[in-house]
Amino acid sequence: FPVTIGGTGHKHPSGDQTVAIPAGASIGVHDSPADLDKEAYVWIDRYDLRLSAGNGNADWIINEKDPISFRRSWFSQRRLSPDMCKALYVRGRSMEPKLDDWDTVLINTADTHDLVDGEIYAVAYNGALYIKTLERTGNGIRLKSENPAFDSVEIQGDEMKKLTILGRKVWRAG
Questions:
Q1: Residues ≥6 apart with Cβ < 8 Å to 86
Q2: What is the pLDDT along the chain (174 residues), one digit of tens a residue?
Q3: Which of 49, 150, 48 is nearest to 93 (CA)?
Q4: CB 3: neighbour CB atoms within 10 A?
Q5: Are the CB atoms for 166 and 87 separated by under 8 Å?
Q6: How far is it, in rounded angstroms, from Cα 144 to Cα 160?
Q7: If we measure between CA atoms, which residue out of 172, 9, 12, 2 comes closest to residue 100?
Q8: Which of 13, 45, 103, 128 has the most crowded Cβ, counting Cβ within 10 A?
Q9: DSSP string for the chain
Q10: Greatest CA span in the chain, whole angstroms?
Q11: CA-to-CA separations, 113 to 58, 121, 156, 164, in angstroms, rounded
Q12: Which long-range CB contacts under 8 A does 29-38 form with residues at least 24 apart?
């Protein structure tokens, strides 16, 4: 719907919403990586690899037509490589309120070895995909659900061989 820059705003076609943009602000819609300054922006592919925040949905469909743009400086400030980041959808309610069903998360696939207790990671375990808070236990790892209505997953001993860390969550939007 129409918006104004530095004005009072326009009515949404339905008549119930007015949006005013502060003077000096700019809004642009870009449909292609070619639309953006490659020096200032980077496109991150969004994958339809739907990470389960519930029972472990494993759907590995790559969606290269649904990227997200970020400022390159955002990656620099966080010491992240855009080439090592992937955007993914969250599926399920087990991580509420930290992550909601259909949120988008950006994971750093380079961050898989020095696990930090209490951080959220995308993982594959025993043939299923999860996004969970990781906690070290005495002889293993707990994939913690933030929503108390869902059980956490305890992984110990030889079961650790079935766990693959895909990356640490570095951003979310929902």
A1: 44, 45, 46, 47, 49, 106, 107, 109, 167
A2: 333 333 444 444 444 455 565 666 666 677 776 777 888 888 887 776 654 555 544 455 666 667 888 999 999 999 999 999 989 888 899 999 999 999 999 999 999 999 999 999 999 888 788 899 999 998 899 999 999 999 999 999 999 988 889 899 999 998
A3: 150
A4: 14
A5: no
A6: 15
A7: 172
A8: 103
A9: ---EESSS-EE-TTSS-EEEE-TT------SSGGGS-TTTEEEEEEEEEEEESSS---EEEEEEEEEEEEEHHHHHHTT--GGGEEEEEEESSTTTTTS-TT-EEEEETT--SS--TT-EEEEEETTEEEEEEEEEETTEEEEE-SSTTS--EEEEGGGGGGEEEEEEEEEEE-
A10: 64
A11: 22, 11, 17, 10
A12: 30/69, 33/67, 33/69, 36/69
Question: What sign for the dihedral angle of Cα 146, 150, 155, 161?
Answer: negative
Separation between Cα atoms, residue 141 and residue 137, nearest integer Å: 5
Place of tokens 């087990």: 94
Q: What is the CA radius of gyration of the chain?
A: 19
